[in-house]
Amino acid sequence: MTESSFIHRFEPARDAGSPPLLLLHGTGGDENDLLGLGKMISPGAALLSPRGRVLEHGMPRFFRRLAEGVFDEDDVRRRAHELGDFVAEAQKQYGLAAPIAVGFSNGANIAAALLLLKPKALAGAILLRAMVPLSDPPNADLAGKPVLLLSGQADPIVPASNSARLAALLSEAGARVTHKVLPAGHQLSQADLSLACDWIGKVSAEAA
Question: Which SUPFAM superfamilies does this entry report, sorted A to Z (predicted)?
Answer without folding.
Answer: alpha/beta-Hydrolases
